[in-house]
Amino acid sequence: MKFTLIAEQLFDGEAFHRDVPVTIEDGLIDSLDTASGAKEIRYPGTLVPGFIDVQVNGGGGALFNSSPTVACIETIGKAHARFGTTGFLPTLITDDVQVMAKAADAVASAVAQKSAGVLGVHFEGPHLSVPKKGVHPQGFIREITEAELAIFCRQDLGIRVVTLAPENVSPEVIRLLVESGVKVCLGHSNADYDTVVAALAAGATGFTHLYNAMSPLGSREPGVVGAAIESETAWCGLIVDGHHVHPAAARVALRAKPRGKVMLVTDAMPPVGMDDETSFELFGTQVLRVGDRLNAVTGELAGCVLDMATAVENSVKMLGLPLGEALRMASLYPAEFLGIAESVGRLAVGQRADLVLLDNQHKVLANYIAGNAVYVRP
């Protein structure tokens, strides 16, 4: 089926344009022009590249750790589609190896079935630092073994991201993971600067939720934060919800890092898309929602009630970023981190037709994944 979308404004990943038609056929952008015989759909608002979220624990009332199944992944994807996410990594936090194996099987099935938006999997743990564990269950934090390596190195999981603490995983193992195609992120770590630099030299390319759960930047010990900000090649995920990172700290990172190396992430939990959900259970601990903040009853921040559209809006309002740059942080830059920018992250001929329509308040009016409308606001 061939059809043409025409919005008042289009952002192609670099610049804004007026009244540019986008013709879609077989799930791809066929042309930036009208096509003879193609059905035309006209929209108000701005058409932008779909958002890509590399850290999604839950949504729609579902938590991947609690239900590592294809049905759970699809529930999460549907919840986030309302907020412009067209590609995501279901994220499993620290857990038992049997749960990891079930999660891997579910992701493999979702990838094979081409479930909407599923790009792969993110294992956040279990090889983390106890002092920087956050809400990750200490009883499951452990040294890496052949069992976990076998899961991480599976080739049927789509894009694989693993977050680990470099003081607990050697550069040799990091190099092995990278050679297997895993994208290694550093996080939940109390490592010193030199240990982080060694991990980067071994092939680590990312930092999970910059500033949070990592040794801070100090004058004599730069820590994980200092190494992350200094690196010209590594990407940093940033949670812009007004709770995890002070806007001034976020602006410091954006000014220090090369353009394109900071990307928006949600670290989303089950309440996303569930306005009436105020609490949920995480490893036997109650997590309470108060407004747009989640805290375990023990006090720690416990992920987010954040979606990508709100992260974009917050980046404009809280950080003072131009809308175009905020949109790139939600689409192009995560695509570059994941190594898929040749197919998603821009609106250009030959790219997959992952498109989001925003109103003038940057709220989602419609979401298309591979040319299929997965959400249209009533």
From TrEMBL:
UniProt GO molecular function: metal ion binding; N-acetylglucosamine-6-phosphate deacetylase activity
Domain Amidohydrolase-related: 46-362
EC number: 3.5.1.25
Cofactor(s) this protein requires: a divalent metal cation
Catalytic activity, reaction form: N-acetyl-D-glucosamine 6-phosphate + H2O = D-glucosamine 6-phosphate + acetate
Keyword Thylakoid: no
Pfam families: Amidohydro_1
Binding site for substrate: 135, 212-213, 220, 244, 301-303
Free-text remark on how the cofactor is bound: Binds 1 divalent metal cation per subunit.
Keywords: Carbohydrate metabolism, Hydrolase, Metal-binding
Ligand binding (Zn(2+)): 124, 188, 209
First-level EC class: hydrolase
Enzyme active site: 267 (proton donor/acceptor)
Example GO BP: N-acetylglucosamine catabolic process
NCBIfam families: nagA
Family statement: Belongs to the metallo-dependent hydrolases superfamily. NagA family.
Name recorded for this polypeptide: N-acetylgalactosamine-6-phosphate deacetylase
Organism, scientific name: Shewanella decolorationis
Source lineage: Bacteria, Pseudomonadati, Pseudomonadota, Gammaproteobacteria, Alteromonadales
